[in-house]
């Protein structure tokens, strides 16, 4: 069936610098336009209402990841062996290599190390009084404890942030940002391949499990490189963005900091509310395997690329009251910042553990948190986070 998209089209570009800096007004316009809108500039269908996003994520047979979840052919080819770009049953087998290590029970022994490191960090930062919430605070756990767990050689960690953000730019549409990210994408694949080939993953680590599965022929070498890339890219700046965004939100909402200080048991709720509002991974995409009737007369044709807006859905007023406000007591446990369905973030327990440990350690030591200079946003096609966050604590 041929479907006329013109009645449901918009020329809004979500990937300009202005929109990446403050995407939420455009998301609101698109959500209010209908259950799905065709973005003519990028040949993409936008889903940003909570109910529609959740439904699409639960229906992988219709909204498939097998033709890639990026917004261009280059990334969909480069990452075709990663867990995020395959459907069941291939997906089920690859994902198990993560879930075997990242379940709550499996992570339990690590929680003490994370708490300990977070306490030492908070102690040092509160003594300093002034620091950068990204470089000095949010980088610490992912770059140290987490990469120890993944088994990354220590000498190879300094470029991870650049590789991760360059690669996420390459997931976006074919714009300048994507072109500029290309050298980093190529380097990140070479870099992971080199670590794999030289056998430098720490024995017993998460990464080593993947290398062992390849060694016994359970998965191919390409699968193994793809899975290691998922750790190098997905575990890093997403978590950094979550922690720094949380402190940024607290600095702007001092009454929320005081609510949290009075009740440290709200740490998990504060983390949920942070990632709901400042969703660190804003989008991924799917491809439709059939015509989909979205209701209100909107039909998405088969073979269409659909932009799944986690960030848009998390601010949908149809689902959350006063969606743009930061209120930790609302504890939005059903947010979509970690996705949902078969591809729901496999590292979310670890990310939560890190975020909660840092928030709690800071709240038990700092009476106040304030901005201490201009905040610089890190613009990226897919992620939302900060480049620099000058903070003062007392
Ligand atoms: C706050 C931090 C994080 C956020 C916001 C986040 C967000 C997401 C989202 C939204 C997805 C679903 C993508 C989709 O449906 O297409 C996802 C998948 C994934 N995440 Fe995370 N993530 C975070 C941290 C981590 C960490 C720490 C790891 C690894 C230790 C990780 C590994 C993965 C992997 C491997 C997938 C693919 C799962 C699959 O396809 O089955 N993530 N993440």
Automatic annotation (TrEMBL):
CDD domains linked to this entry: CYP199A2-like (cd11037)
Keyword NADP included in the entry's annotation: no
UniProt xrefs under InterPro entries: Cyt_P450, Cyt_P450_B, Cyt_P450_CS, Cyt_P450_sf
Keywords recorded for this protein, A-Z: Heme, Iron, Metal-binding, Monooxygenase, Oxidoreductase
Keyword Iron listed: yes
Pfam families reported in the protein's UniProt record: p450
PANTHER family: CYTOCHROME P450 YJIB-RELATED, P450, PUTATIVE (EUROFUNG)-RELATED
Stated family: Belongs to the cytochrome P450 family.
UniProt name for this protein: Cytochrome P450
Organism of this sequence: Tsukamurella soli
